[in-house]
Sequence to fold (328 residues):
Amino acid sequence: MRAFDYVSPTSTRQAANLLSSTWGNTEILAGGTDLLALMKEDVVTPKRLVNIKEIADLRGVKSDSSGLRIGSLTTLAEVAEDAGVREKYPAFAEAVHEAASPQIRNMATVGGNLCQRPRCWYFRNGLGLLPKDESGKELVEEGDNRYHAILGNDGPARFVSPSTIVPVLIVYGAKVRLEGPKGKRELPLEKFYVIPKTDRDREHDLLPNEIVTEVVIPAANGWKVAHYEIRQKAAFDWPLAVAAVALKMDGSSVQAARVVLGHVAPTPWPSPQAEAALKGQPANEDSAKKAADAALANAKPLSQNAYKVQLARVAVKRAILKAAGGAA
Ligand SMILES: Cc1cc2nc3c(=O)[nH]c(=O)nc-3n(C[C@H](O)[C@H](O)[C@H](O)COP(=O)(O)OP(=O)(O)OC[C@H]3O[C@@H](n4cnc5c(N)ncnc54)[C@H](O)[C@@H]3O)c2cc1C
Ligand code: SF4
Fold:
């Protein structure tokens, strides 16, 4: 790890002013479970680390008329144990509880989870988010791509979005609040994720001197929500495919649906095709299978990851059936 300055501001405004307006100079430190590994490997080499853990305003879960507000410094363990989250947003509590390991959940924060960098092994080996060799050949296309994207992978980005809690937050209709030197803004969470086109772009709609301050989840009013992950092993590892589904029922038929896939594309991947396939249908095996087929109809696997198409289909189908059978 290289030498760096270390500052611990006590307000978001101070923190924003200590951050550079250019990527590469400074980084925000929250729980450090992702950032420190990247710094030890020299993938990220900030000159200044802005530790935000002394900013008390960024901690805790609050409830008000806008819904549930989760401060960005709240740890995953605190969220998974919060009585309000477990009661009103059980699918979110379950997703958080399944993420990583108890040790990591005790350190990892919600803001850090939203902003964690991709697990793509080319990126983690210092070859960049859009890795190429000297001749300009794209390394993911040419090399080992078994864990890479099957949707939204026309290039040059082919990594998968790493958070397992974001798809379910999106189907709950969550928003993310940001603060920077120019003030505050709020985005629907799905808009926070973007596919980088050049090496200068990041995978988040986040300025280098902006801070995620909180996540707001509206009341789940009548939506039945479920989250389903397919993992290679039941241990702390990232899944191969994730699906989150919210259904609003009108009697026995689906009035409206939200379907978001994870770990299949460079961003969390909403599926309007699956949502349309479910609308007006009863939520059963047959409609769940058709919606899952629709969600993956445009999948374009790379040379080694065709197996992920079927895994993602199964995740979507099971999430739909789980949502249909469960409470919000
Ligand atoms: C073994 C292992 C297994 C894991 N399994 C899972 C899993 O199953 N599912 C899953 O979702 N995640 C998983 N993770 C990832 C883990 O959840 C993240 O590392 C963690 O949430 C990051 O939070 P942090 O507070 O430690 O962030 P940090 O490491 O401090 O920061 C991560 C990144 O976010 C930026 N950042 C942090 N906070 C903010 C903020 N408030 N505003 C703007 N930028 C910010 C940092 O600058 C940095 O770039 C796993 C991690 C490990 C090591
Ligand atoms: S095994 Fe668990 S406790 Fe040990 S370093 Fe890995 S995550 Fe931390």
